[in-house]
Design goal:
Layout lengths: L3 E9 L3 H12 L5 E3 L13 E2 L8 E2 H14 L3 E3 L3 E5 L5 E5 L4 E9 L3 E3 L5 H5 L5 E2 L2 H4 L7 E5 L3 H10 L5 E5 L9 H9 L3 E4 L2 E9 L4 E9 L5 E5 L2 E4 L3 E3 L10 E2 L3 E2 L13 E3 L11 H21 L2
Parallel strand pairs: 1-2, 1-8, 2-5, 8-21, 10-17, 11-12, 11-17, 12-13
Antiparallel strand pairs: 3-4, 6-7, 7-8, 9-18, 14-15, 15-16, 19-20
Helix pairs in contact: 1-2, 1-7, 5-6
Bound molecules: flavin-adenine dinucleotide and NADP nicotinamide-adenine-dinucleotide phosphate.
NADP nicotinamide-adenine-dinucleotide phosphate binds next to helix 5.
Length: 313
């Protein structure tokens, strides 16, 4: 028979927000249950060096997340390898259904489901996904040793992906739809100094070009945003790095969302539109979206949940 797990605090998500919420709520003796989802450790597990986590000049993203998980366990949080497929916030206890068959009942819920990579939405992008089209240089960069690649995007992720790919590829073309990058200046400096990198400004990608048998990428067709002139950029790999969308499916039609799907919280808190439900990290933050801010919000969510439960006696 399917198991039912009852808890005071259910934390959904295992990125910096989820694990920090677990540390704080475990230390508040709330015996939290944290469900990790299909990406244990969250987005930082798909990157390499993290240089802006206080106290660590250089730390590998996956290593940092292993440490956070160990920390949460050591404080007494129960960490569960499961994925929540549905959540009922209409009455208490709140009920979450796990893919494993486990049903979770909770007095308070902390949502920390983060964000997922965005795609451009081209049919050709879809066709070549996994066959030359990727949204993760850390995962797939190795396959492009001695080859040419294109990265699209102008934020920190795109610049970081482009720089990482220079470790393998002979040439990296960064295509951006404007004439300035939104990435941090220090990252831009590194990009512009790298002899393997070329930037194609003011262009969008219209089509990924490739072969049928075997399925594989041979280039992209780019278009100048003002003149409409087309350019074919030859490449073996196409990396999409145009940002992330909040993973708010569980909250849809139950919690107030804003700014294109981010969970809305009361300013200065993690309280959502449903009492007893708190949101933290990239799921609720369309501005900062950093590991340290996510962790900070995880802390706030645990403290908010503790006060909410204490207020109920
Ligand atoms: P996430 O890390 O996105 O984690 C979300 C978690 O929710 C995952 O564990 C997932 O499995 C889980 N989840 C989702 N849906 C469900 C579900 N239905 N059921 C159960 N669990 C679910 N920030 C920095 O500060 N420094 C950096 O150097 C840096 N580098 C980055 C490099 C890359 C390539 C990327 C993509 C991001 C980078 N960031 C960096 C941003 C940083 O990773 C995020 O801000 C941070 O991870 C957000 O943390 P989070 O806890 O909100 O969510
Ligand atoms: P982002 O900052 O939102 O940047 C997305 C980029 O993609 C923008 O340059 C945008 O162009 C472009 N873009 C969006 N949609 C597009 C489309 N359909 N076609 C072409 N281009 C498109 O996203 P991000 O780079 O993933 O960063 C997300 C957050 O994580 C940020 O807060 C970032 O600081 C953080 N992060 C930090 C680090 C680090 O600290 N080392 C590393 C990675 C990420 P416009 O500029 O024209 O809008």
């Amino acid at each position: 028979m399917a198991e039912t797990k009852k808890t005071k605090v259910l934390i959904i998500g295992s990125g910096p927000a989820g694990y920090t919420a677990a540390v704080y709520s475990a230390r508040a003796m709330l015996q939290p249950v944290l469900v990790q989802g299909i990406q244990p450790g969250g987005q930082l597990t798909i990157t390499t060096e993290v240089e802006n986590w206080p106290g660590e000049t250089h730390v590998q993203g996956p290593d940092l997340m292993v440490k956070m998980e160990e920390h949460a366990r050591a404080m007494g949080a129960e960490i569960v390898g499961d994925h929540i497929s549905s959540l009922d916030l209409s009455r208490r206890p709140f009920v979450a259904q796990g893919d494993s068959g486990t049903r979770y009942e909770a007095e308070a819920v902390i949502l920390a489901t983060g964000a997922q990579a965005k795609w451009i939405g081209l049919p050709s992008e879809e066709k070549f996904k996994g066959f030359g089209v990727s949204a993760c240089a850390t995962c797939d960069g190795f396959f492009y040793r001695g080859k040419q690649v294109v990265v699209i995007g102008g934020g920190n992720t795109a610049v970081e992906e482009a720089l990482f790919l220079t470790n393998f590829a002979t040439k990296v073309t960064l295509i951006h739809r404007r004439d300035t990058l939104r990435a941090e200046k220090i990252m831009q400096d590194r990009l512009f100094k790298n002899p393997k990198v070329e930037v194609l400004w003011d262009h969008t990608v219209e089509e990924v070009l490739g072969t049928e048998a075997p399925l594989g990428v041979t280039g992209v067709r780019a278009r100048h945003v003002d003149t409409g002139a087309e350019t074919i950029v030859p490449c073996d790999g196409f990396f999409v790095a145009i940002g992330h969308a909040p993973a708010s499916e569980l909250a849809k039609d139950q919690l107030e969302l804003h700014n294109g799907g981010y969970v809305k919280v009361e300013p200065g808190s993690t309280r959502t539109s449903v009492p007893g439900v708190f949101a933290a990290g990239d799921l609720t933050d369309h501005v900062y979206r950093q590991a340290v801010t996510s962790a900070g919000m995880g802390c706030m969510a645990a403290l908010d949940a503790e006060r909410f439960l204490a207020g109920e006696g």
